[in-house]
Amino acid sequence: MQIHYKNKRLERVLIGVNVLAAAVVTASFVARFGFDKPLVAESVLYAVQVALLAVFITEKIIRLFNATSKAEFWRANWFEIPLLVALGIVVLGAGRWFGKSEPMAVRHFAVGIYLVLQVVAKLCKTCVNLAASGKNPTQVLIASFLVLILSGAGLLCLPKSATGESIGFVDALFTATSATCVTGLIVKDTGRDFSLMGQLIILSLIQLGGLGIVVFGAVFALLLGQALSLRESVAMQDLLSTRTIGRIGNMIAFIFMGTLLIEAVGAVSMFGMWDDVPGRVENIQQQWFYSIFHSISAFCNAGFSLFSDSFVSYNRSWAVYAVICPLIILGGLGFGVLYDLSNIAVDRVKRFFKRRFNRRYSFSMETPKRMRLQTKIVLGVSFCLIILGTLAILLFGRYAGNGGSVQNPGILGALFQSITARTAGFNTIDISALSESNRFILMLLMFVGGSPGSTAGGIKTVTLAVIIMTVFAALRKRQEVEIFKRSIRIVVVGRAITVTLLFVAVLFTATLALNITEAGRFTMSEIMFEATSALGTVGLTTGITASLTTAGKLIIIAVMLIGRLGPLTLLAALTFNLKPVRYNYPGEAIIVG
Question: Is 495 contained in some domain?
């Protein structure tokens, strides 16, 4: 919601004050919690935070009087009153009604929570406003990812984030990029080298990177009861690739609520899984944390695990296949497909009860909701890839391997790797022990990836379907590409070919660059597997990631970012201001093939 102010110059000054105050808030928390000992005395830090609290309250009062419409201002900032009331109750009640043993600690905590909520709210609003500023929304998306990665890298460099010595900036940048881009490649052991604080930072980066920081900002705005303006809705439509502006609010709310529900169900279902390997979990708090961490990592297709061997030790646990696999599949289908399926399910339930309890409805001509073409393609291709990938891994593991038990993953292992290779990055078998042919199968699956609008990477399932049907149409001498008795526009075919060629170009360039930086250290197969995993934001590795040179790590960082954003997104950001030509040259026949 855009608020109009009388004095534009005063509003610009307040924006600058907010930016400075948010930076000081962040610095105060880093100084307090980022080091083994606070850099500044706690009393000084608390005094600074109280001063910042006064700054935020004063800023709100000034903006209220500067707003053109007071009602519009209160609608956009209604949540400020409950927050201030709660803060006042805690500050005045500490030592009287509760927290009698440590009243100051309770007050410090309350002020800190208020400041954090203020910074988060302002950051989210800024993201949405920038996306709706009339500039290229994809540039805002790219900038938000870069800021998130750099911020995460800075936090991971703090001494409190590591269990031993602080990790270097390149390793921190690599980890932050891998988490934000939901890849899963690691140069440091997540469970051993990072403290609880570091693991929470990684988990936050996974969740924000999976949802997209701009979408998260829109979610936060909707949760605060702020309706998106037309310009904001158009920006969200572009970022979410939805068809109609009217669905944006419902779509964003569905993404947020659906993500929370699926991840919560996954965490609860995974809770008892850790008992299958004795000694891995020390207490019930750690058991819950492991469940929440791996549930979020699985649904966001991140592939980060708190175990050095991923899920190899749990390859006989039913939860790996009954919980982890569905989470990966749901995360890779795309929010648009899940939204369509949920609408169809709700419609079917409504029709059932209407027919059951309303006899007149039985004669109604109302047609049921039909599945969109996008949903049909995604479900069909995803099912085929899972089945064909499983069969191929079994076939080549049996007949193209060395005959050992390690190279043959078995039916469940093949099924899990077929699912996780399409951008999740977990593994129940040692990838380095697989045959070359099995690795090639995994590379093909990683190259395809998940579906549009999901947390997954790759060229996407719909792109693969369009390219295959384009070839099929040419073989049948059809003028149009047809899928499920629907014609595909030529611009979509061109986009699919462009995405695939750009992915191939980036993959080959990255592989050749890594061959230069890692000359003689690894085989061509290992390097290409690593580059494919990074570009597809998968996270599977043959074990060479931590041994890469600094230049090699920087290359993988760039490839992970390109894979998460998509080469087409980067190309669109660079060519946004180019105007299409309004003329055509004469045609002339040429021979191909």
Answer: yes
